[in-house]
Amino acid sequence: MVPTVSLVVPVHNEAARMWSSAVALRKHMKSVGEPFEMIIVENGSVDDTLVVARQLSTRFKEIRCLMLPEASLGDALKLGIGSATGEKVLYYPLDLSVGLEFISMSIRLLEKYDLVVASKRRGGDHRPLVRRVTSVAYHWLVRSLFGTRLTDTTCAKAYRKSSVTAILEGLTGASRVFETELLVEAERRGMRIAEIPISVVENRASRESLRIKVETKLEDLLSARLDKLAIFSGAPVMVAGIAWLAVLGAEKVGSPLSGFMNPYSFIAAVLLVLGGFQITTFGLLSRLMLQVRSEVACGARLDEAYQLPIGYAEEEHDGDGG
């Protein structure tokens, strides 16, 4: 039976929990009652994650594996969604940190929405305080930069494949804020997005230091909106300089003295105009570069991606052995 639901599960160095979590997810998907496939996208693991992924694809006919040579959540999602057979595509973390009820809820909601987003802000974020605080700060920045109404862009998600395919072609998976960019672009295009409250727990410690995670995400987030930052900061500076020059010009017209009454003010006003013009120009060039990046991403293909052979066991077992 052709799958109507595709569950995309990116994995990186997850050998220790890989089998048990994948079996639990498969069992839950079978209970939902719709034909499904589970796409495990191994990306850049240095442990036995790939070995276990191959064993799973051999043992269970619903599971297939894709592999990327480098660690990249964005590329893994892009590859997994693009390879999905089902029209309803779910992204769910292997650590099972998101409430399993999201799966059945999102499958139903995709009947009328293009995207479904799990929100730990609206549900319950039960992770350590530091992670909760950084998450709140990140999404405040996202709303400030992009003007989005979404409260969470980094939790589990579900997509109608036909709705997001065009967006995926215009995004680069190398971005550390790929999930956010996809949702922001979908919202910009007026797609129907449902946000549902979901409880999130901490099932394993982060494998990346908080400092590195904050730095890299902040860099990519600001890069994605560098055009807006430059234009909205440069334009007011330029306008202020022009207004200042107008005031100085009016003073000179009404003064019997030759030259400007305060030459330093004139120099400062000129510098404001030139500086604001340069910043605004930089913002426009950044916008052009972002458009070029999208065009390049449209034509790019993940040539390094390899699909592993799908194995079929003579018998299926729901046990955790293997």
What does this protein structure show overall?
The structure is a single chain. By secondary structure, this protein is an alpha/beta fold. It has 2 domains: about 5-225, Spore Coat Polysaccharide Biosynthesis Protein SpsA, Chain A, CATH 3.90.550; about 225-290. It contains 10 helices and 8 strands. Strands 7-5-6-4-1-2-3-8 form an 8-stranded mixed sheet, with helices on both faces.
Secondary structure layout:
Elements: E1 5-11, H1 15-32, E2 36-43, H2 49-59, E3 63-68, H3 73-83, E4 88-91, H4 101-109, E5 115-125, H5 129-146, E6 157-160, H6 161-169, H7 178-188, E7 193-200, H8 210-224, H9 226-253, H10 263-299, E8 306-307
Parallel strand pairs: 1-2, 1-4, 2-3, 5-7
Antiparallel strand pairs: 3-8, 4-6, 5-6
Helix pairs in contact: 1-2, 5-8, 9-10
Q: What portion of residues belong to β-strands?
A: 15-25%
Largest sheet: 8 strands, mixed
This entry's quaternary arrangement is: single chain
Number of domains: 2
Going by helix content, strand content and strand pairing, the class is: alpha/beta
Strand order of the largest sheet: 7-5-6-4-1-2-3-8
Instruction: State the end-to-end CA separation.
Output: 26 Å
Helix content: 40-55%
Low-confidence stretches: 297-322
Number of DSSP helical runs: 10
Q: So what's the overall shape?
A: elongated
